[in-house]
Amino acid sequence: MKLYTKTGDKGKTSLIGGKLFKHDLLIETLGAFDEVNSFTGMARAEMQCSELEQISQELLEIQHQLFDCGSDLAVLQSKNKVDLKVTSDMITWLEQRIDNWVEQAPPIKRFILPGGSKATAALHVCRTSTRRAERNLSRLQSETNSVPAELLAYTNRLSDYFFAVARAVNAIDSNPDIEYVRGSSVFSFSEDKNK
């Protein structure tokens, strides 16, 4: 089997339901999710120490989930009823992981700059590329009203996950977050939750 097919040489690509120009918003959105997946693989490659093995395994699961996101997007223009792969269970799983990793990092008071270890910097790239995928999804939803609610929520939660994990990796590696020095305290956490 040849790797190249030449079917896209005139600027179109095939999806379930027909062909679209490669600059179509749906194709742009699929590409954004592909980029998030690639950056996630890069971040995973930076998880060298045993203390980060759990995060590495979670990132592998997220790579599979990102393929699920692409699968759901690829059938948006299909006329046939298709069972979608992104579910509320995936969102709940992300929320549980976020809550876990937030507990591993010190309380945050100011905005922080992306950075720290190579792994942390890679996770921030994952976070920002996920936000771009989310912006594409939002535009796609506003133009077509066809994006599943679970996919929108999953993507929103995923960027939060990358932020929480990036901070946790810095804490595990004993790298303090770099606070934005010209910013004031914007986050507040009360010891007494009832106040």
TrEMBL record:
GO terms for molecular function: ATP binding; corrinoid adenosyltransferase activity. It comes from the Bacteria. SUPFAM superfamilies: Cobalamin adenosyltransferase-like. Pfam families: Cob_adeno_trans. InterPro entries: CblAdoTrfase-like, CblAdoTrfase-like_sf, PduO-typ. It catalyses: 2 cob(II)alamin + reduced [electron-transfer flavoprotein] + 2 ATP = 2 adenosylcob(III)alamin + 2 triphosphate + oxidized [electron-transfer flavoprotein] + 3 H(+); 2 cob(II)yrinate a,c diamide + reduced [electron-transfer flavoprotein] + 2 ATP = 2 adenosylcob(III)yrinate a,c-diamide + 2 triphosphate + oxidized [electron-transfer flavoprotein] + 3 H(+). Signal peptide: none annotated. GO terms for biological process: cobalamin biosynthetic process. Its EC number is 2.5.1.17. Residues 3-168 form the Cobalamin adenosyltransferase-like domain. The keyword Transit peptide does not apply. Transmembrane segments: none annotated. Keywords: ATP-binding, Cobalamin biosynthesis, Nucleotide-binding, Transferase. The keyword Transferase applies. Pathway: Cofactor biosynthesis; adenosylcobalamin biosynthesis; adenosylcobalamin from cob(II)yrinate a,c-diamide: step 2/7. NCBIfam families: PduO_Nterm. Belongs to the Cob(I)alamin adenosyltransferase family. Homotrimer. This is Corrinoid adenosyltransferase. It comes from Alkalicoccobacillus porphyridii.
